[in-house]
Amino acid sequence: MIRKLVAVSLLTLASGHLLAAECSVDVDSTDQMTYNTKEITIDKSCKTFTVNLSHSGSLPKNVMGHNWVLAKAADAQPVATDGMSVSIDKNYLKDGDERVIAHTKIIGAGEKDSVTFDVSKLTAGQDYAFFCTFPGHISMMKGTIAVK
């Protein structure tokens, strides 16, 4: 009887762990101006969400740097365009740009950066985009975010 209870308890614990929402994602960027994903789904049960950005290319950040920026889809191109007026030291993002929900720093070959943001800042049903603000990169380095 005790063995059965222990087995049931262990199965319950294991299944509970398997049902837990994944509240982070690894995103790789390359010298070919690509991310390894075009869509990220965030479970609405996540309180916070973390994006771990890596750069698997061989070029330095001043030549082929990448960041990961989150904004409403309608704001993506304006944020990237405005970011071209500032330096790489500011991650090609204007100071205090309220359209930016979250972002990493610009990274180059072999580097990594992460950003964690409050999921309550996102609204289910709203169109969100992630993109790179290095000048010209948004044309190829972009994707969608969905909250479900």
Question: How does this model look, in words?
Answer:
The chain has 148 residues and is of the alpha/beta class. Helices cover 20% and strands 29% of the residues. It has helices at 2-19, 61-64, 76-83, and strands at 24-29, 39-42, 48-55, 69-72, 100-103, 112-118, 128-131, 142-147. A five-stranded mixed sheet has the order 2-8-7-4-5, covered by helices on one side. The chain has a three-stranded mixed sheet with strand order 1-3-6, with no helix packed on it. The longest helix has 18 residues, at 2-19. The termini are far apart.
Helix-strand pattern, N to C?
HEEEHEHEEEE
Helicity range:
10-25%
Mean pLDDT: 90
Uncertain regions spanning at least 5 consecutive residues: 4-17
> Main sheet?
5 strands, mixed
Q: Give the spatial strand order of the biggest sheet.
A: 2-8-7-4-5
**Classification by helices and strands:** alpha/beta
Task: Summarize the topology.
Elements: H1 2-19, E1 24-29, E2 39-42, E3 48-55, H2 61-64, E4 69-72, H3 76-83, E5 100-103, E6 112-118, E7 128-131, E8 142-147
Parallel strand pairs: 1-3, 2-8
Antiparallel strand pairs: 3-6, 4-5, 4-7, 7-8
